[in-house]
């Protein structure tokens, strides 16, 4: 299907159910970029066919469902099977491998629970950050909170892009503009994530030794 035809399909068929379903897919193993879901849905919201707040809500809800899939798979299957799965044919189809899973796990170990929030904002980490959370048996409520915050923030950004482009970009140019802006914003998110990490590192070095840390 050509890109223009796919854009038309998204704009004509996206509703709250399909937003939830596609974002659940995007957040799990199967590679499906959120950039082809939320901005077109926000574009439709600008036309009055959808509600922009519900677009963000159901997009975040879908992302949480997909994150739960990865979390529980890792939680119950354990490290050996997850790495074996990553190196299998299914893993290659899903564009994941042992190196990518190891990278996500290393990122999680270095930054703890906060990495679940930060990881949702970073390219190449976003879909896989739920795996190390499950492997580490991270507290379910904490995982849910940080996942919702991170996915919600990213969806708000994508929705704002799609909504604002409605008045200046025709439908057949929507995805090229979304791709450009989301790529630029991804790098901004990398910078913000780095600043957040540096802040907590700084706080860890400067707080009194006997003072309990509050995350």
Gyration radius (Cα, Å) is 18 Å
Largest sheet: none
Q: Could you give the distance between the termini?
A: 47 Å
Helicity range: over 70%
What does this structure look like?
It is a single chain. This protein has 215 residues and is mainly alpha-helical. The chain has one domain (3-206). The protein is built from 11 helices and no strands. It has helices spanning 3-13, 16-27, 38-46, 52-77, 79-86, 89-93, 98-111, 114-119, 130-135, 140-165, 174-206. The longest helix is centred in the last third of the chain and has 33 residues, at 174-206. The relative contact order is 0.14.
List keywords for this structure.
about 220 residues, mainly alpha, about 0% strand, 11 helices
Précis, in short:
This protein has 215 residues and is an all-alpha fold. It has eleven helices and no strands.
What is the strand and helix layout of this fold?
Blueprint: H1 3-13, H2 16-27, H3 38-46, H4 52-77, H5 79-86, H6 89-93, H7 98-111, H8 114-119, H9 130-135, H10 140-165, H11 174-206
Helix pairs in contact: 2-4, 3-4, 3-10, 4-10, 10-11
């Amino acid at each position: 299907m050509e890109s223009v035809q796919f854009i038309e399909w998204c704009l004509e068929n996206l509703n709250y159910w399909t937003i939830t379903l596609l974002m659940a897919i995007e957040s799990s193993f199967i590679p499906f970029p959120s950039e082809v879901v939320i901005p077109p849905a926000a574009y439709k919201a600008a036309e009055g066919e959808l509600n922009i707040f519900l677009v963000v809500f159901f997009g975040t809800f879908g992302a949480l469902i997909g994150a739960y899939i990865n979390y529980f798979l890792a939680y119950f299957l354990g490290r050996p099977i997850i790495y074996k799965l990553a190196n299998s044919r299914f893993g290659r189809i899903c564009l994941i491998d042992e190196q990518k899973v190891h990278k996500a796990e290393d990122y999680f170990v270095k930054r703890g629970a906060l990495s679940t929030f930060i990881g949702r904002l970073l390219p190449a980490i976003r879909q896989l950050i739920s795996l190390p959370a499950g492997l580490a048996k991270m507290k379910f409520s904490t995982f849910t909170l940080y996942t919702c915050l991170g996915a919600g923030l990213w969806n708000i950004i994508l929705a704002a892009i799609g909504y604002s482009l409605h008045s200046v970009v025709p439908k057949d140019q929507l995805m090229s503009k979304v791709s450009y802006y989301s790529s630029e914003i991804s790098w901004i998110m990398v910078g913000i994530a780095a600043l957040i990490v540096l802040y907590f590192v700084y706080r860890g070095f400067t707080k009194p030794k006997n003072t309990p840390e509050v995350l």
